[in-house]
Amino acid sequence: MKPLDHLEHLDKHLVDELAQVARETVRDELREQTRKQRRKAALYAASGALALYAGAALALAVGLALALVLPDWAAALITAVILAVLAYVLRGTAKPSKPRGGHAAGTAPGHGGADRTAPVPPIPPAPPVAGGPTGTVPSGPTPGIVPPRPADDPDVPHPRS
Q: Three-state DSSP class for 89?
């Protein structure tokens, strides 16, 4: 087995060399992607700064136009109120609406978070209890009746029973 011992050293050397080449390739690719993303982020930042200055210039123009017919303080106050209303409307537009049940749309309590989009079927009303008054529906869970759950959906996690 002595002749095969030197092949083991060559295999190890080959694996090390391949790993080094793979690391360098991945590192170079990540550098290139990062460089592109950095450039894009800088362009977005410059665009945002210019939009801010454009908005300030527009607000100044509105204030100066109002100052032609109103006192300066009133023109500034009206301009500030207009900007505050616009900010409030934009904030309301950006803010996600709350669902009525307190849970994210399409989810039930205990069945995933807000990122789940699988619909949960509604639970049908329970039948009247045998031996009870005719036509009454029990207020709590009915013994022996298990509410349906989406067991066929692999995206919805279920507690282990």
A: helix
